[in-house]
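Entry 12.
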Amino acid sequence: MRAQIALQEIADLLFAREYAYDILRRFFIEEPSQEYIKIFRLQNMAEMFPFKEDSQEIQNGINEIKEYFERFDVVHNQSHFDDLHWDYTRMMVGPFELPAPPWESVYVQKEPILFQQCTIDVRNKYKHFGFEIAERHVEADDHIGLELDFLYHLNKLCLQSIEEGNIKEVTYLLAEQKQFMDNHLLVFVPEFSKKIIENADTQFYKGMAKVLNYYLQMDSQVLKELLNIEIIQ
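Predicted 3D structure (tokens):
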């Protein structure tokens, strides 16, 4: 007999995913804000990151983040925060050559330039699901932060479908997330994360890159398992 899972059990898992993707999208979509860093630090949010008990690699990344905060007071010391802010800017914004370009197209195309076929594919997927990019994010659609934000968006849609008791839509949205992750994020995030780990000046971003890479791998496996289980009311 095929294994079964209740909608409410899936909801609990999706709330955990919402927590994880909210953290990841915020730290990779743009330079860190002092306001969010303060919340993240004072509420010990890294300690509550999903799957850390099941993945030593995720736990290692979290440990690096914790060690960074023990050494640097980014909440009260402006110089420490400025160094963290610059670390992101230097690696992923510019003005110099980027050690860790944040766009999928740089990694998957023969020529490392933006706005190629994968960018168009991502844009069409966003449009299909009504995902709108905020005006302040003047970025190519395949930016790592936007792709993470899109998964956060799909996860929210999935939670809404659970509230409506729409099992068919839940299954469809889970499959779409799995497909998007496998066809886009997991195609370039391992190399992107490696570049951050090799080039970051702060232990914070080295740790965050590890969390990003191994969380996506773990989440892809979770989605695969969910799609092989019968969902019941």
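Annotation: The chain has one domain: 4-232. The chain has nine helices and two strands.
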